[in-house]
Automatic annotation (TrEMBL):
GO molecular function term, any single one: serine-type endopeptidase activity
Alphabetized PROSITE patterns for the sequence: PDZ (PS50106)
PDZ domain mapped to chain residues: 253-357
Family: Belongs to the peptidase S1C family.
Coiled-coil annotated residue ranges, if any: none
Gene3D superfamilies: 2.30.42.10, 2.40.10.120
UniProtKB keywords: Hydrolase, Protease
InterPro entries assigned: HhoA_HhoB_HtrA-like (IPR048172), PDZ (IPR001478), PDZ_sf (IPR036034), Peptidase_S1_PA (IPR009003), Peptidase_S1C (IPR001940)
GO biological process: one example: proteolysis
Signal sequence extent: none
Keyword Ligase: no
UniProt protein name: Serine protease
């Protein structure tokens, strides 16, 4: 690489925790067998609910979707030596939801990662062996198939239309508590992977304060109409009300590729980039170790270019400021990444670049993300 630059985050050392329980053991709290329960007098009976009150929209949404939410158990054998012997089985639990009545299920990749066996339990108690059709580590999406017919399915919403403040409803199996429902709001959209502490992912997450816990991974996040708008994925450990879901539009796009071929192709440029902000501009321009000097007040600055990458072959250099991609104006690195994700590997992608005050027109052919 021609230039290295490290951008330090704020001092809060919060760890991202994926909400699946894969590879862990869940303990069960035990209570005394002869616990004494004293009866308390009832001060007042609750008033009857008037017949003209509208039904609870959360309950209605759950009724529409709950039957299509499943529990996913995964297990794998390990050969690590321990005092219990040389072999043991690691078990994990997650959630998923049925998108086709013939048994096609979506969940998180980390729920089934490394699993030797996958079993799926429906809400009605039936159990099936699950076949992993494919999983994508970059977006944390997996597709599973069970041999069944006439199954209930979820209704799919549009995550592009979400607004902060809208209702959000999560369904899943946290800590083995099947079909648990929690509710909150959409706290934000377009949260980049790097911002939430998952730089190895390529997702613009939905943020919600609906409670998400281990075992919720892969379960649906619903809007108030009961439509799936996201896939519950992660929380930030040590914080409250900070949960994250993969937008359903992203999950569906990835799932379609997994179902068709078992793998996903991701367009790749080979740059380290950052959104220009006043603080970043000042930091770059005042750092004696950096050769990058930024004049622009907005756009996406190239921090580094990977050698022999598509970006290097197109002539991009550290310090370039990208203002357009594919003839669309961009202001943030997240917008550039979204435009790249929507492109096709090998196609010509026009870039509008400013270098040392001069405007340049470049064309790059995205390659496939290296594994």
């Amino acid at each position: 690489m021609s230039q290295k630059f490290s951008i330090q985050k704020s001092a809060s050392a919060l760890a991202l925790v994926f909400a699946g329980a894969a590879g862990t053991f869940i303990g069960v709290q035990s209570f005394p067998s002869k616990a004494q329960i004293s009866e308390q007098p009832i001060a007042q009976l609750p008033a009857p609910i008037p017949s003209n009150v509208a039904p609870n929209f959360i309950a209605t949404a759950v009724e529409r979707t709950g039957d299509a939410v499943v529990r996913i158990n995964s297990s794998r054998n390990t050969s690590r030596e321990s005092r219990f012997g040389s072999d043991r089985v690691l078990r994990g639990t997650g959630s998923g939801f049925i998108i086709k009545s013939d048994g096609l299920i979506l969940t998180n990749a980390h729920v089934v990662d490394g699993a030797d066996r996958v079993s799926v339990t429906l809400k009605d108690g039936r159990n099936f062996t699950g076949q992993v059709l494919g999983k994508d580590e970059l977006t944390d999406v997996a597709a599973i198939k069970i041999q069944a017919a006439n199954l209930p399915t979820v209704r799919i919403g549009d995550s592009e239309q979400l607004k902060a403040g809208e209702w959000a409803i999560a369904i899943g199996n946290p800590l083995g508590l099947d079909n648990t429902v929690t509710a909150g709001i959409i706290s934000g959209t377009g949260r980049s992977s790097s911002v939430i502490g998952a730089p190895d992912k390529r997702v613009s997450f939905i943020q919600t304060d609906a409670a998400i816990n281990p075992g919720n991974s892969g379960g649906p996040l619903l809007n108030q109409q009961g439509q799936v708008i996201g896939m519950n994925t992660a929380i930030i450990g040590g914080a409250q009300g900070l949960g994250f879901a993969i937008p359903i539009n992203t999950a569906q796009r990835i799932a379609n590729q997994l179902i068709a071929s078992g793998e996903v192709s991701h367009p790749y440029l080979g740059i380290q980039m950052a959104t220009i902000t006043p603080s970043l501009k000042e930091s770059l321009n005042s750092d004696p170790r950096s050769n990058i000097r930024v004049q622009a007040d907005r756009g996406v600055v190239v921090i580094d270019v990977v050698a022999n990458s598509p970006a290097a072959r197109a002539g991009l250099q550290a310090g370039d400021v990208i203002s357009q991609i594919n003839n669309q104006s961009i202001r943030t690195a997240e917008e550039l990444q979204q435009a790249l994700d929507a492109s096709t590997i090998g196609s010509n992608l026009p870039l509008a670049v400013v270098r040392n005050g001069r405007s340049l027109a470049l064309s790059v052919r995205p390659g496939e993300f290296p594994t």
